[in-house]
Each structure stands twice: as C-alpha cells, then as structure tokens.
Amino acid sequence: MFESFLVAINAVIPFLFYLIFGHFAVRSKAVEIPFLNRLNKMVFSLFFPFLTFYNLYKADHGELPSIKMIVYSVVSILTLILVLLLVVPRLVKENRRRGVIIQGIFRSNFVLYGVALTINIFGEAASSIAAVMIAVVVSIFNVSAVVVLEMFNNDGTGVTALQLLKKLAQNPLLQGAVMGLIFYLFRWRLPQGLVTPIGAVSNMTTPLAMFVLGGTLRFDAIRKNLPYLVPSLLCKLVLMPLIFVTGGYLIGLRGAELFLLLAIFGTPMAAASYPMAQNMGGDGELAGQMVFLSTVLSVFTLFGWIFVMNTLGILF
C-alpha cells in the first residue's frame, strides 16, 4: 500500500512542479500574463493535436480488455455525461460555468494515471489492457468535452447541429485524435524519424499547459468559486468512483479491469480541460482551479480508494 501511495505522489509531483514553476515565473516577472495567454492558445491549437494523436498511435494491440469492460466503461461515461447535462444546468446559472463543471466531473487524467498505477499494482502484464482502454476512453472524453463546451458557449446562444459538427471538425484535439485512431485501427506505422519528434512534442504539451496554468492561476479567486469547487470535486474524486467501481464489481469485473474503473472515474481533472475551457468560451479560471485542486487532493483520495479496495479484497 505504501508503494501505491508513492505512485500517487510521484504522479502528482510533476504537475505541482509545473504549476509552481509557472507561478514563480510570473512573480519574478520573467514572463507576463499576456504572453501566457498567447502561449495558452498556441498550446491548444498546435501542441494538443500531437498529444491526442500520439496517445492513440502508441496504444498497444496486445492483450485486450473484456467486452464487458469496454461496454460498461463506454455506457457509464455516456450515462454520466447525460445525467450531468440534465442536472448541472438546473443548479448553475452562469452558462460559461456549466460546461466547465460538466467537463470537470466526467473527464479525468486517465492517460497519465491509468497505465502508471495499473502497472505498479498489477505488473507489466496489465499494461496492454490499460493502453487499449486509454484509446477507447480518451476518444470519448475528447469528443464529449468539445461537444459540452460548445453547447454552453460564452454567449449562451448555443449552436445548431450543423454548426456543432463544423466546430467539431475544426477542433485541434479531435483532429489529432481522429488521425491517431485511424493509424491505430489500421496499424499504420510512421518512420521512427517522425515518431521521435511527434513523441517529443506530445511530451511537451502537458508541462506547457500546466506552466501556463500556474502562471495565470489566481489563488485569491478560489474562495469565490468554492460553491462550485467543493461539490464538483466531491463528485469527481469520491462519488463517481464509488458509483462506477461498485457497479463494475456488481457485474463481475475484477482485478486490473475493476481498478481501471477507479483510474477512469477517480483520477484528477484532465490538464487539457483548462486550455480547452479558456479557448472555447468557458470559465477558464474555474477550470484551472478544478485542475489544480483535483490534482493535489487526488494524492489522498486515490490512496484511500486503493486502500479500501485492497482491504475489501476486490483488487486481486
């Protein structure tokens, strides 16, 4: 269990470093907020397509998760999004906050936490299952996040179905994800000379996004957003994993597959949520605070969930 706690800490420390680095870069006047805002747009438009492409491109075709696992995960995510679309607008008045809260609750940092935690607990043999689930889950996350943020855009007017399809086609994250999925499904391989720089740009994306977040995050504004942050984070880190891990257990999922449900629903808000909200008319400030706080709190919640699941004997 101590090893699992260390994995959770080690998964979070890099994010905290990028956040602190960005914060002190602004405090020391090495960079200014207008520059970070421009950098944020660049990361969203240029860097994130490489990240979404590479995550799917490199997915392993080895041992596959069960059909039950895939179907349950997909149905659970879509059901959660539908429920949030029905409930959140009734509770939150500000349109630009609705999409951010919905995205924050259903979209997790599964890419960075899923494989690392699964391998630490179940060994390398489970890495293929985790990698394939990443290809499935992240595709749903990316498409759904764009749809949700477009539905609750800044001016509150919404979009028609045709406008939504056009904006989906123009979204950089989805463009990268579609290309990555095509390469994954057809098992096309690029020359290593191209894979290396694509991987390097992909690896730069999250540090840059978190650096920008650290520089633009206003800690004094967290207090005013507490009425939104507290229930959202409770849902994200406590309620959602409780519901969907329990559901997975009841339908017979065990071991690595059951644990992956925790990684899907109980890991912190995806780092990409902040630049997406900032660039798509959502409340970027609230999104940034949700990413920051969920990242810090996840050290304790993930350890708690792993401890409980191990104590109950449902991990192995």
Give descriptors for this structure.
single chain, 316 residues, mainly alpha, 13 helices, 0% strand, globular
Silhouette: globular
* Mean pLDDT value: 87
Label the structural class.
mainly alpha
Tell me the strand percentage band.
Answer: under 5%
The termini sit apart by: 13 Å
**Number of discrete helical segments:** 13
Model regions low in confidence, pLDDT < 50 over at least 5 residues: none
How many strands, which pairing sense, and closed or not: the largest β-sheet? none
Q: Tell me the Rg in angstroms.
A: 19 Å
Q: Care to count the β-strands? A: 0
> Roughly what percent helix?
over 70%
Order of helices and strands: HHHHHHHHHHHHH
Plain-language structure description:
- With 316 residues, the protein is an all-alpha fold.
- It has 13 helices and no strands.
- Helix 1 (2-27) packs antiparallel against helix 13 (284-311).
- It is globular, with a radius of gyration of 19 Å.
